[in-house]
Specification:
The chain is mainly alpha-helical and about 120 residues long. The protein is about 75% helix and about 0% strand. InterPro entries: FtsL-like.
Length: about 120
Amino acid sequence: MEKEKEETVNKKAEEGKKKKRTSLKSILGGDILATDFFRRQTKLLVLIMVFIIFYIHNRYASQQQQIEIDRLKKELIDIKYDALTRSSELMEKSRQSRIEEYISSKESDLQTSTNPPYLIK
């Protein structure tokens, strides 16, 4: 009887030593995933992995959006400068002196009016 008790105590002690001992070989070999702790926490570990994948995806998507925002800001600045240039060119071409020069160079019969404008009632 006592011998059986000693054997069971020794077996439990050996099992306890085996459970507590985690070697690099068991980690790299994947044996650690078969332990009781990992079996009980499978759902939690899967949930954590899903959150990690979700986090990585969100970070990647936000970086892509930030790159797109920067590109659009640069494009907007270029368009604003182009619009400003065209506006100044239009103002220059629509001045009365420039229009008179253009008409005189085309040898047209048009002339600048010498009479001031008046209102029709």
